[in-house]
Amino acid sequence: MSIEILGMVGTKEFSETHGSFLDGPPIDPPYLTRFARAHEEAGFDRVLIGYGASSPDGFAVAASVLNTTERLSVLIAHRPGFVTPTLVARKLATLDQLTGGGRVAIHHITGGDEADQRRDGDFLDHDARYRRTGEFMAVLRRTLTSAEPFDHEGEFYRFEGAYSSVRADIPLYFGGASPAAVQVGGEQADVYMLWGEPLAQTAERIEQVRAEAARHGREITFSLSTRPIVAATEAEAWERAERIRAATAERVGGGAWSWGKGRGESTSVGAARLQEQGAGQEVHDERLWYGVTNLTGPGGNSTAVVGTAEQVAEALLKYRDLGVTTFLIRGFEPVDDVVQWGEELVPLLRQGAVRREPASVGA
Predict the structure, then answer these.
(1) What are the DSSP calls for 26-61, one per residue?
(2) Count of beta carbons in the 10 Å neighbourhood of residue 234
(3) Which residues form the Luciferase-like domain (predicted)?
(4) CA 337 from chain center: how many Å?
(5) Which CATH superfamily is domain 4-355 in?
(6) Contact yes or no for 178/207 (Cβ under 8 A)
(7) Phi/psi class of residue 331: alpha, beta or left (left: φ > 0; alpha: ψ in -120 to 50)?
(8) Contact, 75 vs 173, CB < 8 A?
(9) Residues 15 and 335: beta-carbon distance below 8 Å
(10) pTM of the model
(11) Is the pLDDT reported for residue 321 higher than 50?
C-alpha cells in the first residue's frame, strides 16, 4: 500500500464548532454507525477511536465499528498503565480474530494532561510514563507473538509464565514529541504518529525518529494528523476557515470547549510546539493554518490544511515526499466532511501517492 488514510469516529456529534460533549447521552449508537459507515463508503482504510479518562471505552466502541462495517479497520487509542500489557494483548487478539483478522491496531498515548492522567489514578511524572510505555509495548508485542510462555521483570511490570493462546499481528502506533518519546517510539513503534507541523519541522522530527530506530536495527513508518478545510475554490476555503474560527472563538469564550480540559498542567511537548508555531505565524507553508490551534490551546491535533481538494491533496503529499505514508484527517463538520472528502480528496491522495512511487528497478 502506497498510502494509508485514517479518519476518526466519536460516539456523539461534537467538534470545536458545534454539538456538546456534556449535554445529552455520551453514546449515540445510530450516529456512531452512520459515522463509521461514512468512512467506509468514502474509502478510508481505518478510523481512530480516541481516549479520555471520562470517555466511553475504546475497545467496546471498536467492536461496534467493526461489526457495523465490512472492511473498515480500527485504531484503538489507549494509555498504558491502567491495564496490564498481557491482558491488552489478549483483548486485541480476540477482537481481531472475532472480526475477520487484520482489522485491529493500537495507538499508545502516554499522556500530557496531568489532570486527565490523575482521573484514572496515574501520578507518574512525564518521563516515567514514557519508560512505562516502552516496557508496556515490549511486553505487549511479545505476548502477541510468543508461542511459548515467558517471564519478564522490569521497572513497571513483572510476569511469570506470561502466555496468550490467541495471537495476532497487531500494528503498534505511537505518538509523542519529547526526547523520551523519540527514544521509546524509535525502539518500539511500527508507526510513529505526528501532528501537522510545518514541512521543515516535520522533516527534522522524522530524521530524529529514524536515527533512533536505526540505533535498534529497526525501520519505522510515519503518520501525520491534520484537519483539512476544503471548498470548491481557494477563496471559499479560506472563508470557511474564518467561519470555523468564529464559531470556535464563540464556544471557547462561552466555556463550551472547556470539557475534559486539565487545569493548565499540560506537559505535552507536542502541544507546546504547536502553540509556539501558531503564536509566531498563523499560516505556514502556504496552507497550514493555526487559527483554531491558537484558540483552543494545548490539546489534540488542531492544525488545518486549507484550499481546494487538489490544493489540500498536493500540500499533504509534500509530507509523503518526506516519508509520511499514513494520513489521519478529521473534520470540523465530522460526518459531512468525511462524505465530501470521499468524493475528491481521498481519491486525489491515492492517485497522487501512486504517481510519487519511485520507478521500479529495471522499469
Answers:
(1) S--HHHHHHHHHHHHHHT-SEEEE---TTSPPHHHH
(2) 15
(3) 22-325
(4) 17
(5) Luciferase-like domain (3.20.20.30)
(6) no
(7) beta
(8) yes
(9) no
(10) 0.93
(11) yes
Strands 221-226 and 229-230: unpaired
Nearest to 15 by CA among 229, 248, 242: 248
What's the whole-number mean pLDDT along residues 43-54? 94
235-292 confidence digits (pLDDT tens): 999 999 999 999 999 988 755 555 444 444 556 676 777 878 878 899 999 999 999 9
d(C-alpha 23, C-alpha 311), whole Å:
37
**Contact between 59 and 99 (Cβ < 8 Å):** no
Question: What does the H/E/C string look like for 230-291?
Answer: ECCCHHHHHHHHHHHHHHHHHHHHCCCCCCCCCCCCECCHHHHHHHHHHHHCCEECCCEECC
More confident call, 81 vs 255: 81
Strands 288-289 and 304-307: antiparallel
Q: Are 278 and 196 a contacting pair, CB within 8 Å?
A: no
The count of other CB atoms within 10 Å of the CB of residue 195 is: 23
Q: How far apart are the first and last CA of the chain?
A: 19
On the CB side of 296, how many CA atoms lie within 13 Å of its CA?
A: 26
Is 272:263 a contact under the CB 8 Å cutoff? no
* pLDDT tens, residue by residue, 199-219: 999 999 999 999 999 999 999
Distance CA 277, CA 271 (A): 10
- The pairs formed by 237-242 with CB atoms below 8 angstroms and a separation of 24 or more are 237/306, 237/307, 237/308, 237/311, 238/306, 241/289, 241/291, 241/304, 241/306, 242/291
| Edge-to-edge order in the sheet of strand 304-307 | 229-230, 304-307, 288-289, 283-284
Residue count (the chain): 363
Q: Give the β-pairing of 158-162 and 288-289.
A: unpaired
Neighbouring residues of 266: CB distance < 8 A, sequence distance ≥ 6: 112, 113, 114, 272, 298
Identify the weakest region by mean pLDDT among 64-68, 122-126, 152-156, 279-283.
122-126
Q: What is the mean pLDDT of residues 83-106?
A: 98
